[in-house]
Write a structure and sequence with these properties.
homodimer; 442 residues; TIM Barrel; 8-stranded parallel β-barrel; two-stranded antiparallel sheet; FMN-dependent oxidoreductase (Nitrilotriacetate monooxygenase family) (chains A, B); Diverse_substr_monoxygenases (chains A, B); flavoprotein (chains A, B); FMN (chains A, B); Luciferase-like_dom (chains A, B)
């Protein structure tokens, strides 16, 4: 069977472009309207996409004047989507720095139960002092500490998911024995960051473990992904960089004894689609015109740990930027943005325009045919196992992708014409984890 | 308008009776099947009930051999029910001892958004060392500390719910201003237990605040309820005790300057319903016969801080029980159980039978007419504003209540014949909280 693409729809408010809410077509209240997201999930399912995904952070991100800020809590949102869909995978971000593993393990297991095996967890450590200050801390913990905690968090979580064997419930009405108590075990975890007895208070879920996703590309992030991630969302601006990242991550996974095919790599792409290339570029330009640059400049200054006044809009980036080592979060994104500005010799205003669509993800304006071509090109060039589709405007950008690009990919036999399995793991071609408890009690 | 009853369906697995899963009619896997609960919520909505409710604790409670253990995470479950219902309120328990207020405030606000204003939070402090050991602690924190933390937790949570004014989002597309940043404010909470900057990352929800529910009846619990609760679920075995509790709680609320009508008191009742009284008692007896007493004896011994061998099945409770002061959780339930056993001179085996249906809640076996009579009696005797209906067997016990008891209550003009409002607060006749932020910024 020829290798097939994996396609995830990364959904955000009324589109990834920061000005999308200002278009006449956009409902600026849609961010908190579950019907909007239910509609999007149904469109994505119509396109036979592998999954939908929601990014998240436990803090109000950015100035609420700039664009729709605040989001429905993601496990609540995924559940609302599970209720109106049958096949599509449901992935959301949750933080290992600001949750307890017992609670989060249970929440994702519950979403996996209610969705019939369609849950996925994008594991993040959460950069930013503002999030820390919602949880009793003065500042964000150090990058290395966050990743160390994240690794232990995932260990605890997966042990909790394995704390019931798949056959623990026997439901013997005559004998009056509901579950075999020997198959429901405490985990008695004792580590640097967590002490958790268990067992979990929900049986093992349909997928065994919800799908583990990761999206950080720093050195710590890559090593974490190589060890734990089954799907990786990544921002890559050029084919060469994407190839290097892809090769590096597959090699790291193999070095850890994993099957490199069990870690699927999906670069982000912000497709701006129209019938002609000129129309697509006009839509892109219209969105760029609607950006209020002051908001974006403030955010850029914060990322660079500078004052906004140090970033004159019509000059190139200053020379005195910090190094990646001096940045305490979103390290690889910092480097990507600096590289992009320097490589294309952009002014601050131009850089803001380039980041407006995908915050560092690759924007591509073109016809459905051209979008399909670039997807196929990267897919066949060792740069991707699939793509994280990030429509600039929603729902119209998702509809355009599903109704115009997906059929081309299907005609080229690059993408499924129907779902072949029932779980998110089935869609991504990933195995169901063997229960570590069963292994140790055989 | 004559005073009307409030009816909440307290739902648990395939029924509150611990042996309900052993009946031929029961699906022993239903505890983790969202369709089971969606069916129950629809039945309750057909009966025009105010709400459904799910108790919870972040620990696997009891022996998994005894009966269906483990539950779907409640905010996930409520969301799944919101998707298939239109009117009924959706209440669940969450712990103030083992959550972060930022995360929990957001989760309940999100359920309120996705349900169009139907969310309620039963605030508990969580007794038991086993739960503590899932969160890095060796033992449960002291009762007084748990309640002090709970009070501060609720303060933080309500401030977060008020951190956006109701009119903060202006969505001015022309000016490029999405929300008025002056109406989205940090809370900068600094207390003994929490430091939380805010604002919340979701706008104020339809109800302003999800409904605040409480269920503890100890001295600390009553004072907490009097200050914060808008609905109280309580276990009362006799009319006299229920009247005393009702009067005490209303008086405490008034003493704190609250309108006593804004705290609704709902004793629990486990109705076992059949066409004749004899048939109802036979169903009750059949359930009692299906109890495996060893499990229940172990639990009783744990509650009394004794060894199971100290509780011979066919003897009365021993004299050397601890006092309520020596108990570190579920204090009032402890006293209720001891009083019940002593008052009726029950053996341990008989006590186990009496607790099998409702764990201390009042069980009442009778005809629909008799169930309606006792509800009316308590309602008109200053003992209740409504009832927490706890079917012994599900779905059949709920169906019987909705189809056979509710019509009688409606005929007697004691209960609504249709929903008159859209939110959970509407159903309970409770006001929407004024935003404290708006009050301070007028």
């Amino acid at each position: 069977m020829p290798r097939k693409l994996h396609l995830n729809a990364f959904l955000m408010s009324v589109g990834h472009h920061e000005a999308s809410w200002r278009l006449p077509e956009s409902d600026p209240y849609a961010s908190w309207d579950v019907k909007h997201f239910q509609n999007l999930a149904r469109i994505a399912e119509r396109g036979k996409l592998d999954s939908v995904f929601f990014a998240d952070s436990p803090v109000l991100q950015g100035d609420p004047g700039r664009r729709p800020a605040g989001k429905l809590e993601p496990t609540v949102l995924l559940t609302a989507l599970a209720a109106v869909t049958e096949h599509i995978g449901l992935i959301a971000t949750a933080s290992t720095s600001y949750n307890e593993p017992y609670n989060l393990a249970r929440r994702f297991a519950s979403v996996d139960h209610v969705s019939g095996g369609r849950a996925g967890w994008n594991i993040v450590t959460t950069a930013g002092a503002d999030a820390a200050r919602n949880f009793g801390l003065d500042d964000v913990p150090a990058h290395r500490d966050r990743y160390e905690r994240a690794a232990e968090f995932v260990e605890v979580t997966t042990k909790l998911w394995d704390s019931w064997t798949d056959d623990a419930v026997i439901a013997d009405k005559d004998a009056g024995v509901h579950a075999d108590a020997a198959k429901v075990r405490p985990i008695n975890h004792r580590g640097r960051w967590f002490r958790v007895d268990g067992p979990l208070n929900v049986p093992r879920s349909p997928q065994g473990w919800p799908l583990l996703v990761q999206a950080g590309s720093s050195e710590d992030g890559r090593q974490f992904a190589a060890r734990y991630a089954e799907a990786v969302f990544t921002a890559q601006q050029t084919l060469a960089e994407a190839q290097a990242f892809y090769a590096d991550l597959k090699q790291r996974a193999a070095a850890l004894g994993r099957d490199p095919d069990h870690i699927k790599i999906l670069p982000g792409i912000v497709p701006v689609i129209a019938a002609t290339e000129a129309e697509a570029q006009e839509l892109d330009a219209e969105l760029e015109r609607l950006i209020s640059p002051e908001y974006a400049r403030r955010q850029l200054a914060e990322r660079f740990q500078l004052d906004p006044a140090d970033l004159p809009l019509d000059e190139p980036l200053p020379d005195n930027l910090p190094t990646e080592d001096e940045i305490e979060g979103a390290k690889s994104r910092f480097t990507l943005i600096v590289d992009l500005a320097r490589r294309e010799n952009l002014t601050v205003r131009q850089l803001i325009g380039r980041l407006g669509g995908g915050r560092g993800h690759r924007t591509f304006a073109g016809t459905p045919e051209q979008v399909a071509d670039t997807i196929e090109d990267w897919f066949h060039s060792g740069a991707a196992d699939g793509f994280n589709i990030m429509p600039a405007v929603l729902p119209s950008g998702l509809t355009a992708f599903v109704d115009q690009v997906v059929p081309i990919l299907q005609d080229r036999e690059l993408f499924r014409t129907d779902y072949e399995g029932t779980t998110l793991r089935d869609h991504y071609g990933l195995p169901r984890p063997v229960n570590s408890l069963e292994l140790t009690t055989v």
